Amino acid sequence: MTGATGATGIGARRPRVLVGACGSANVLNLPAYLTTLAHACQAEIRVVLTASAGAFLPADALRLLVSEVAGPQDDRLAHNHVSWARWADLLLVLPATAHTLAAAAHGVADSFLTTTLLAHERPVTFFPSMNEQMLRNPAVQRNIRTVREDGHQIVLPRPALSFEAASGTYQDALSLPGPDAVARYAGKALRARAAADAAAGTDAGYDGAAAAEADAGPDGARPAPAPAVEGSA
């Protein structure tokens, strides 16, 4: 893999992070998230691109950064959703569209990503990316509640200056947390899983201490959001 280097400890493999990327225009920022996750968490990364995400960002471009990519143009028999679900120590959906949140809430299995979500036996973390009007929609709010009630995590976007594709201008809008913030979240989740497995007398298979620190900086400041592009599909 070209996106991460460094050992995680004698006899321990690197943590495995699976990123499901959906068709929000914010997927254009995905390479920065992948390289930061790989470096900060010393993780091996795989990516699943939905068909709409692949329209924004070619799978071949991501193959330069991560160990493996399941793209929308791949042969449907080239990847197995159960084996990919079992492979992942941590599954992040980044960015997550309203469509994928609805599929997760209702158990819809209409793509490689959604079948993988159903086969993954641990909590999934979703990072929604959509405009404020969509996020406030009662149907989207119901789906968010359902996903959380099913034991998954939702990290909501925050206000930031973003480019709005609809108007072609910069607006105060909702934005994903930045790459450093997502890496800190992932590091905390990986360490928590390793600690829980150790307490249960099982082995997570990786060195949880190698994952990145999840705390804020020494001044307590929260990291800045990523540059955002309004619009999703």
Keywords summarizing the entry:
9 strands; alpha/beta; 36% helix; 9 helices; disordered N terminus; three-stranded mixed β-sheet; 233 residues; globular; Rossmann fold
Instruction: Give the number of DSSP strands.
Output: 9
Q: How much strand?
A: 15-25%
CATH hierarchy: architecture:
3-Layer(aba) Sandwich
- Indicate the low-confidence ranges by residue numbers: 1-11, 214-230
* Main β-sheet, spatial strand arrangement: 3-2-1-4-5-6
**Largest beta-sheet characterization:** 6 strands, parallel
Q: How many discrete domains?
A: 1
Could you estimate the helical fraction of the residues in percent?
Answer: 25-40%
Q: What distance lies between the first and last C-alpha atoms, to the nearest angstrom?
A: 30 Å
* Secondary-structure element series: EHEHHEHEHHEHHEEEHE
Average pLDDT confidence is 85
Report the radius of gyration as a whole number of Å: 17 Å
CATH superfamily: Flavin prenyltransferase-like
Given helix and strand content, the structural type is alpha/beta
Question: How does this model look, in words?
Answer:
By secondary structure, this protein is of the alpha/beta class. The protein has one domain (16-157, 178-219): Rossmann fold (3-Layer(aba) Sandwich), CATH 3.40.50.1950. Helix content is 36%, strand content 20%. It has helices at residues 30-40, 51-56, 59-62, 81-87, 98-106, 112-119, 132-136, 138-149, 179-199; strands at 16-21, 44-49, 68-70, 90-96, 124-128, 153-154, 158-164, 169-175, 228-230. The strands form two sheets. Strands 3-2-1-4-5-6 form a six-stranded parallel sheet, sandwiched between helices. The chain has a three-stranded mixed sheet with strand order 8-7-9, with no helix packed on it. Helix 1 links the parallel strand 1 (16-21) and strand 2. Helix 4 (81-87) packs across helix 6 (112-119) and helix 5 crosses helix 8 (138-149). Mean pLDDT is 85; it is low at 1-11 and 214-230.
